[in-house]
Structure formats: C-alpha cells, structure tokens
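Researcher: Good morning. I'm working through a list of sequences from a screen, and I'd like to move beyond sequence-only analysis. For each chain I'm collecting a predicted structure so we can compare shapes side by side. This is the next one on the list. No need for commentary yet; just the structure.
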Amino acid sequence: MEGLRWQEGGLWSSDSFTKAVKRFAADGSHQTVVEVEGSPSGLGFLPDGSVLVVSQADKSVLKVAPDGTPTVHADFSQFAGGIGNDMLVTKAGHAYVGNLGFALGEENPETTRLVHVGPSVRNPGAWSDACAFGGDDLDTLYMTCNTTTVEEFNVGKSSAAIATAKVGRKGSAAA
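Model: Good morning. Structure tokens for this chain:
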C-alpha cells in the first residue's frame, strides 16, 4: 500500500499489486475507487475534490471521475527516467510528481526529476531530488538539483545546484 492520504473522513491508498485505489472506513472495510492498469502510486485531490492518481507504468497522472472512470490529466513520460511514484497536490491544485529516475532492476539508481503538473519547472542538465516551499509568502519552490553525471556517481562524486521557481500561489510549509 502506497500514497496514503486522508480525505473525506477516510484513508485512501494505492495498492500496486491489485492495481486498485482503495478507500478505507474506520471499521477497516474498504471500497475500490478505481482500477489502474498501469499500477497506481501517488494520490492527491484537486480543490473540487476530484481524485488524482499516478499511473506508474504509464508515467501519467489520471483524474478519476465520480463514476470511477479514469482519464489522463497529465502525461509526464518525457520527464521520467523510471516508473511514476508519489505525488503531492497542494490545496490550490498544483501537483508535484516524482518517479524512480531509472529502470528498476535494470539500471543503477540515478537521480529523479520532480514534475510540476501545469507549467513545468525546468533546470536543464539537472534533476530535482528534493523541494520545499519558501520565501515570505511561501510562493517560491526551492529545489536541490543533482548535476552529477553517471560517471561521477559511479566513482562516488556528487554535485548539485539550487533552483527556484515562483509558482504564483502560496505553498504549504513542510510539517
């Protein structure tokens, strides 16, 4: 079970083995909200209550209709170096989606790119591996960006840069 989120009085989770998003009640019972053929991971909710779910294999974010029908909300495959993973959705509806950054079981671990669903935040030649909102109004996204090449990584060297992006909305401080 992944992508735990509390919403509408219930605990939501992605079960990548059964390929289903489930909503649990306080008594432990659950209902399947949607089945995701590409295997679900990160979960989030838009301001209108719509469910967003990461489809790992498809490297996309799906929006789930009230009847449980999924449609592609965003395709981030061009930015992902590996399967889709967790996602953070802000109260304003900005989604930040991660991925493994490498082909699991086939490649050595590498850094990943964090994708902002909406206008992408880009830092050519670097991969964002951590982020936080900051500034006086929490409207700046700060990202640590790994600029290490595969050759440097394989000999234990690392380099990085800090990138910033004004997101135009107030962010949430980390808990």
